[in-house]
Each structure stands twice: as C-alpha cells, then as structure tokens.
What we know:
Elements: H1 17-20, H2 27-37, H3 46-146, H4 148-153, H5 156-307, H6 312-323
Amino acid sequence: MSEVTDLTVIEIKPDQAPMLYSAGGLNSFLEQIRELAKEVPDVTTKQGRDRIGSLARMVGSSKTAIEKPGREYLKRLKEEVKPAEDELRLFTRECDAIRDAILKPRDEWEVEQERIKAEEAMNTLHTEALVMNENIDLQRAIQFESDHEMALLMNKDIDRQRADEAAEVERQRIAHEEELKRQAAEQAKREVEEKAERERAEAAHREAALKAQAEQAERDRISAELKAEADKKAAAEKAEREKQEAIAAEQRKAQEEADLIKREAEAKESARLAEEKRIADETAKREADVKHRKAVGTDIVNALTANTSLTREQAIEVLTALKDGLVPRTKIHY
Length: 334
C-alpha cells in the first residue's frame, strides 16, 4: 500500500471565490484529490478496507467544502443580476403590450376580412346548393309529369318509397350544405389560430433572444469583472514582487558597498600592521646591532686594558679610532 499524506482541511473564504470559481481555479484542489486517490489500500485487510472508506469520506468532505461556498457565491451572483432580469422582463412585457396594442387594429381588421371571406364562401356555396336544388326540382317535375300516368297505377308502397327517396335527397342536400358551412368556418378558424400561434411563437422567440442576450451580457460582465480582479491582483503581485526585488537589490548593493568598505579597511589595517611590524623589526634589528656592537666594543676595550698599559679611557679612544677607520689596515668584525 502506497503511503499518501491525507488532504489538508479545505477552507474557502468569500474573498477567494471570484478567483477560485473561474476557469481552472479549482485545479490545485483536484490535483490534491487525484493524488490522494492514487493510494491503493490492501482490500484483503480490515485496516485497508477502513482506509478505503476514510479516503472516500475525505474526497466527499473536500467536495462539500468546495461546493458549498461555490453555491453560495453563485447565489450571490444570481441575486446581483436578479434586479436586471426583473427590469428586462418588465421592459419586454411592456414593449410586447405596446406592440400588441399597435397591431390590434390591423389584426382585428384582418380577422374581419377573413370572416367576410368565409361568409362570402358560405354564401357562394349556398347559392350553388340552391341552383343544384332548383335543377333537381326541375328534373323531378319533368320526371313526375312523364311518369304521372304510371304513378297512378302504382300502389301506395311505391309512392311511399319515392317519398322516402325524395326525403333522402333533401337530407343529403342539407347535410352537404351544412358540411360546406362547417368546413368554411373551420378553415377560417384554423387560419386565425395559426396566425395567432405564429405571432405567439415569434413573441416567445424574441423574448428568449432578449433573455439570452441579457444573460450573455451578464456573463460577459461577470467575466470582465473577474478578469479585472485577476489583472488587478496580478498587477499588485507584480508591483510587490518588483518592490521586493528592488529592496533586495538595494540591500545587495548596500551589502556590497559595506563589504568593499570593510575590505578596504581590512586592507588598510593590514598595511598599517605590516608597516608597524616592519618598523618594529627594523628597530629591534637596530637595537640588536647596537647591543652587539656595544658588546664587541666592550670586549675590545676590556682586551686593551687587560693586555696593554692603556687606561679604560685610552682604550675607548683607541676603539673609537678603530670604528671611525682612523687606524690603517685595521677593521672591527662585528
């Protein structure tokens, strides 16, 4: 089982919402969750099965921790745009009412014209039916005259049959006329309804288009605000970064100048100490030489006083003459 660090507690503050709940804003959280999901507990053990449940709960808790403030943020956005939606809805409704009031005289006139056309069509059909009936009556009269003598010979059953046939013809004529009237009325009604339906569909389409435009405008506004906030934040971060870089550069420059001054001071101090050492060495060397020369002079003076009849003062005079090179072919070796 691979070891994976548990998810840290996710807490999203309101001022973080515009940046996080935008394109790619939650990618870092998803990467954490995906990384957590790579752990493969041993399902054959109770510890492994418990770990699987714990991982699932952590993912669910993370989802809730991110989704809940996101929903609240969306709710705030919707509340912000609601006045604009209400105002647009009121505006479009009033415009539709004004438009319908403008169109009403024309629509009523067109409906009246359709009614007149339907009435004329019905009158035409009625006239045609009357002509048809007159032709039928004429033919029936001719037939009646021609068959009059034969009809006198027929019995009452035949008369009754003919009466039934005549009644049937009349019924069919009336039914045909009523059907023509019904079809004409239905056609007129259908045309009026189709026209009204087209106008309603057009109005709905226009309202939907206006609503879509308003929603798109609002999305564009929100996107622009989010981008402006992101740009502002990026600019502030850049300015802060440049400020820190400038401060760091000044600090480096000051440190370099301080180091240079320190090196120069150390160099001067080293030179001063070297010079003091040189002077001290030379002084010590001179003092040692003087001491050595005194010792040599003392040995010479002691030797002169011990090996000659010269007094100490005379021996010192001889030493001085030797030092000053006044005695030829003689030299003191120090």
